[in-house]
TrEMBL record:
Residues 35-323 form the AB hydrolase-1 domain. SUPFAM superfamilies: alpha/beta-Hydrolases. Keywords: Aminopeptidase, Cytoplasm, Hydrolase, Protease. GO terms for molecular function: aminopeptidase activity. Its EC number is 3.4.11.5. The lineage of its organism: Eukaryota, Fungi, Dikarya, Ascomycota, Pezizomycotina. The active site is at residues 110, 290, 318. InterPro entries: AB_hydrolase_1 (IPR000073), AB_hydrolase_fold (IPR029058), Peptidase_S33 (IPR002410), Pro_iminopeptidase (IPR005944). It is found in: Cytoplasm. It catalyses: Release of N-terminal proline from a peptide. Its main location: cytoplasm. It comes from Penicillium malachiteum. This is Proline iminopeptidase. GO terms for cellular component: cytoplasm. GO terms for biological process: antibiotic biosynthetic process; monocarboxylic acid biosynthetic process; proteolysis.
Length: 340
């Protein structure tokens, strides 16, 4: 499956949100088609036309959104009024601005999966289906997996040594805080240096087979600083969410319509049991060897949403560009396109 080719966007815009920000969006495909929003990762990522490849342009109306402070949104790297609730609110603001009655599909990878889940729990009546890749729900254990000493660090010990080695010895126990201190410091030179090392670690662990060409992105100071700064900004503030918030029973119940109407909970002998079918409208695509977002999270979400479909990609890590993952996402989008 080669993916789909789109012509230039039929609409672009900057939408004012809050008192400081303007979020950039583009629309592709069929203006009267099924509306799908692509939620990029990070925090601190951005969209590009290549993100439209998953969507049949005859069927889908594809909306790409650059989140606050990233990509073509303005002002770049602005941290004020830049929180998780703000980003979830922006998705709803954009829906209203574009006169979309209901999102047919929320497509989110990594941090984008976080926003998709939060939006579905905040506005359940405005979501028809979800496609999630490399699931991230912000739990402390998930952050520790990629930014602590006992997860990916044990698989990439030499890269971890370089990552924490950028910091003074006394700050290596909390690298997120240490890097954030430098990323928000007054020295531009130190900010760029910190951003490069933060992103070098991300790139090193992001794919099952690391493509060294990806490290060329580190020379783009604008991208490098925005990506690292936003990731650290959100992580150091615990994403403005309660621990385990997304997977709490009461929040998952708000999404019961996405399980094809089958969503039952029972409490028995202190165990939380879930019953359902595989007929729902949540598809999870997860690389078996994901070093950024631990596969356990995807499994936990699947078990908590009994109508969901979990697709393991046996030869992939975290990146959505790995062949097996890309193929599964293309297939999922085509399956949703065929639904009545």
């Amino acid at each position: 499956m080669a993916g789909y080719t789109h012509t230039d966007p039929f609409d672009t815009g900057l939408l004012a949100v809050g008192t400081l920000h303007h979020i950039y969006y583009e629309q592709y495909g069929n203006p009267n088609g099924r509306p799908v929003i692509f939620l990029h990762g990070g925090p601190g990522g951005q969209t590009s036309k290549s993100n439209t490849t998953y969507f049949n342009p005859k069927i889908y109306r594809v909306i790409l959104l650059d989140q606050r402070g990233t990509g073509k949104s303005t002002p770049k790297t602005e941290l004020r009024e830049n929180t998780t609730p703000d980003l979830v609110s922006d998705i709803e603001t954009l829906r209203l601005h574009l006169s979309i009655q209901k999102w047919y599909l929320l497509f989110g990878g990594s941090w984008g999966s976080t926003l998709a889940l939060l939006y579905a729990q905040s506005h359940p009546d405005k979501v028809h289906s979800l496609l999630l890749r490399g699931v991230f729900t912000t739990r402390d254990a998930e952050v520790s997996w990629s930014r602590g000493p006992h997860g990916a660090a044990n698989i990439f010990p030499e890269a971890w040594k370089a990552f924490v080695g950028f910091l003074p010895v006394e700050e290596r126990g909390d690298p997120v805080a240490g890097y954030y201190k430098r990323l928000t410091g007054e020295s531009h030179k130190e900010r760029i240096a910190a951003a490069k090392e933060w992103n070098r670690w991300d790139l090193r662990i992001g794919e099952l087979k690391c493509d060294e060409r990806g490290f060329l992105a580190l020379e783009d100071e604008g991208w490098s600083l925005a990506h690292a700064l936003m990731e650290a900004h959100y992580a150091v503030h615990h994403f403005w969410l309660e621990e385990g918030q997304i997977l709490k029973r009461e929040n998952l119940e708000k999404m019961k319509h996405l399980n094809g109407g089958f969503y039952y909970f029972k409490w028995l002998l202190g165990l939380f049991l879930m019953l359902g079918t595989e007929s729902g409208l949540v598809t999870i695509v997860q690389g078996r060897y994901d070093m950024v977002c631990p596969p356990q999270t995807a499994y936990d979400l699947h078990c908590a949403l009994p109508g969901s479909t979990l697709i393991w990609v046996p030869d992939a890590g975290h990146s959505g560009q790995e062949p097996g993952t890309r193929q599964e996402m293309l297939r999922a989008c085509d399956r949703y396109a065929d639904l009545a």
